Amino acid sequence: MAQQEDVFKKIVSHCKEYGFVFPSSELYDGLGAVYDYGQNGVELKNNIKQYWWQSMVQLHDNIVGLDSAIFMHPTIWKASGHVDAFNDPLIDNRDSKKRYRADVLIEDQIAKYDEKIEKEVAKARKRFGDNFDEAKYRETSERVLEHQAKRDALEERYKEAMNGTDLQALKQIILDEEIVDPISGTRNWTDVRQFNLMFKTSMGSTADGSSDIYLRPETAQGIFVNYLNVQKTGRMKIPFGIAQIGKAFRNEIVARQFIFRMREFEQMEMQFFVKPGTEIDWFKNWKEMRMKWHQALGFGAENYRFHDHEKLAFYANAATDIEFKMPFGFKEVEGIHSRTNYDLTQHEKFSGKSIKYFDPETKESYTPYVIETSIGVDRMYLSVMCHAYQEEQLENGETRTVLKLPAALAPVKLAVLPLIKKDGLPEKAREIMNDLKFHFNCKYEEKDTIGKRYRRQDAIGTPYCITIDHETLTDNCVTLRDRDTMKQERVPISELRSLIEDKVTITGLLKKLQ
């Protein structure tokens, strides 16, 4: 685990060193859990968004896009339940004066039991070698069974306390499990309290004439209050979907793990409106489609898993997360939920206006059910970075740091490198670049040795480099270098675009989804 944490630290510093992610307001010593995307980061982020948007809106003729405002009428958040129920259970340590989420402390404790079990299994695997029967060992080892029993009992208590919003029970679990504050090392805890996560601000010109409004904590409500506008103006027939990418804001008290949990973040959400009674089939359908979308990136099926929710929100009748294996364990990157007709019914009730769908075939009006797919852009970004970051031992004894990004997501697709800064090579390189820059993002670089330039491009994940040398001026060929294999081949300039374009555009990824 410690080794994985070291890898994660390296990824965080790599992100800063190579212009992917900077701490926000760093000049003024930063702002907690807020980050800025640098020159390479913004390209990677835009490519992730493009891949999602095209897979939703371009590949489905019954899904359209929307961009709703961040500020919304405050009653919307009353209707959605966010004003009354969008809370985190918080606990303070009196000695360190630090504040924690009680649920996170308990979930970390559950993870510790899992780690103990895995350690026992790893020791046994080493001991028994090829004859090791893991399934049998897990069923018979006294130590494993003891850890498993403690873990299961803790999880049961935790679920019961969370389902019943029993704050006293949460505190009791923390005391019984002897969970200590990581900073002070003490168990001097306050009671658990609820804290609303919405950012509140004022709209209006004068203090007495202003009204309280909120920064949206999710993008979904903008879709719900517009669904009938979209349906009527687009003449959409159920089933149909509305997709949106946008910023959301949560006043996270315990924001951690770099960009995994932030106070200002971006969501890619699609709400799919269906006929009541068909929702579970559509839920299963979207589960498969979303997993296929993730796996098309080629990170290996073993790094993904579904985590079905046992504790459902009171309005949902099915929910699952797609989890990705980060250096700090399997973590949620996307949620798929069957939200029934709760949101639309609430907005009808609070607005006093009918927003039922009229079915022209059956001549009946009804409130549609909704399947939601919701993915955090920043979490998705982090999963891509964590998988792509590699340190490779080369045959000459050197180590190279390379980002093996899927070529379609890479910030720069092609680096154009003249071998030296004279003899007409830079001019020839510029000519090639000026032709290719209309088709994909290219970068021109002439400083340092060719080897150093290759290393720099490896570090930002550029899939291809071309070197222009003296022979190029006579044979019109360049040396094309592949990032992953480091193989080099001579190719005609006239064939560059066709050789590279298919591999580096999002179209290639989208074709895998058909």
Automatic annotation (TrEMBL):
- The entry marks the following residues as binding ATP, namely 250-252, 260-265, 332-333, 376-379
- Molecular-function GO terms, alphabetical: ATP binding; bis(5'-nucleosyl)-tetraphosphatase (asymmetrical) activity; glycine-tRNA ligase activity
Q: Which Pfam families match?
A: HGTP_anticodon, tRNA-synt_2b
Q: Which domain of life is it from?
A: Bacteria
**Catalytic reaction equation(s):** tRNA(Gly) + glycine + ATP = glycyl-tRNA(Gly) + AMP + diphosphate
Q: Where is the Aminoacyl-transfer RNA synthetases class-II family profile domain?
A: 151-418
Name its cellular compartments: Cytoplasm
Binding of substrate, residues? 101, 218, 265-269, 372-376
Keywords, alphabetical: Aminoacyl-tRNA synthetase, ATP-binding, Coiled coil, Cytoplasm, Ligase, Nucleotide-binding, Protein biosynthesis
Q: What is its EC number?
A: 6.1.1.14
Q: Cellular component per GO? A: cytoplasm; extracellular exosome; microvesicle
Annotated GO biological process: diadenosine tetraphosphate biosynthetic process; glycyl-tRNA aminoacylation
- Point out the coiled-coil segments of this chain: 137-164
Which purpose does this protein serve, as stated in its record? Catalyzes the attachment of glycine to tRNA(Gly).
Q: Which family does it belong to?
A: Belongs to the class-II aminoacyl-tRNA synthetase family.
What NCBIfam families is this protein classified in? glyS_dimeric, PRK04173.1
Share what the entry says about its subunit structure, partners included. Homodimer.
Q: What is this protein called?
A: Glycine--tRNA ligase
Q: Which organism is it from?
A: Alloprevotella rava F0323
Which lineage do the record's taxonomy fields give for this organism? Answer: Bacteria, Pseudomonadati, Bacteroidota, Bacteroidia, Bacteroidales
Q: Which gene encodes it?
A: glyQS
